């Protein structure tokens, strides 16, 4: 069944939550009308996923594309310590795409929006002669000072939430399905690539307990650490032995004769949080995170200077450049 533009919008929006406590007017008008609480600041971020660059038929099912596009946007709100509330979804649709593909994509949007109690309050649909693309804008709010990339101070602890490298390892596995791998590891890595979990609660703990900086890991730990170092005007010294590389990524790396650390440095799309905190604030962060079963690991220290330096177990040092995922490599 072919739908016209308005039928398509009606069909898609009927599949997702469109109302919420702060939604005065949702989809249907020229703009959505939203309210915020007194003392809050609005957070807003947008990102685009495009066929070929962010997904291929063999790496992502339609559901995963919708889920992950929204998850990546919500992750930016998490990195600011905020609460995600509303989402807008713009689609560039190739003319030969089947309606069921878009319905499944929207089921993925619905899944992640429902989990975080977010409403889809608008969007856009256009036809494209190029690949499918999905642009997601997320709005959130916070009543605390937002977590910036620029607040790291010499003496602070550098930390990361959760375990990393698993999305990059998952992509490696999905692109090369003949790679030797334990089937259980394969299933975990696939899940970590296709359905990352934005760290909203972790971000709120970090802002509540006064972390000095934060960023979410989209391009890779190397890239994100360099962003914090440069925005804060400091050097970050990282002990590689402390980096919590996901065990399934370690196993895959070992089986391929690759350094599993490379998945963490350069793989990207983990959507965990990396940041800094004074030793006092870090102790409070650890206590509160532990009480909520959230893993937070110290991986290094902030020093005077610039750039990111890795210290390997044998004591050697190396500069880590920001060579994570880059859409326009120089
Ligand atoms: N076309 C653009 N116009 C204006 N600002 C942009 C544009 N593209 C990216 N930015 C801004 O540049 C900053 C860095 O972008 P990006 O590296 O994509 O951040 P993130 O990894 O958190 O998505 C963000 O604040 C983003 O809003
Ligand atoms: C087919 C395919 N190739 C490569 C990748 C890896 N990849 C694509 S984009 C990206 C980084 C994150 O996306 P980006 O658009 O840079 O998001 P942002 O940093 O703006 O949040 C990575 C690691 C992928 N997911 N799928
Ligand atoms: Mg971006
Ligand atoms: Mg980000
Ligand atoms: Mg990026």
UniProtKB/TrEMBL annotation:
Alphabetized UniProt keyword annotations: ATP-binding, Kinase, Magnesium, Metal-binding, Nucleotide-binding, Thiamine biosynthesis, Transferase
One Pfam match: AIRS_C
Pathway noted in the entry: Cofactor biosynthesis; thiamine diphosphate biosynthesis; thiamine diphosphate from thiamine phosphate: step 1/1
Binding site for Mg(2+) 3: 30, 76, 216
Ranges for domain PurM-like C-terminal: 153-309
Segments forming domain PurM-like N-terminal: 29-141
Source taxon at top rank: Bacteria
Enzyme class: transferase
Molecular function terms, GO-annotated: ATP binding; magnesium ion binding; thiamine-phosphate kinase activity
UniProt key word ATP-binding: yes
Annotated binding of Mg(2+) 5, by residue: 219
Residues involved in ATP binding: 106, 123-124, 149, 218
Transmembrane helix as UniProt keyword: no
Binding positions (Mg(2+) 4): 30, 45, 76
Positions contributing to Mg(2+) 1 binding: 46-47, 124
Residues annotated to bind Mg(2+) 2: 47, 76
Residues engaged in binding substrate: 54, 269, 325
Catalytic activity: thiamine phosphate + ATP = thiamine diphosphate + ADP
GO biological process, one term: thiamine biosynthetic process
Enzyme Commission number(s) from the entry: 2.7.4.16
Family indicated by similarity: Belongs to the thiamine-monophosphate kinase family.
Note: Reaction mechanism of ThiL seems to utilize a direct, inline transfer of the gamma-phosphate of ATP to TMP rather than a phosphorylated enzyme intermediate.
PANTHER family assigned: THIAMINE-MONOPHOSPHATE KINASE
HAMAP family in the record: TMP_kinase
Function: Catalyzes the ATP-dependent phosphorylation of thiamine-monophosphate (TMP) to form thiamine-pyrophosphate (TPP), the active form of vitamin B1.
Protein name: Thiamine-monophosphate kinase
The organism of origin for this protein: Alicyclobacillus ferrooxydans
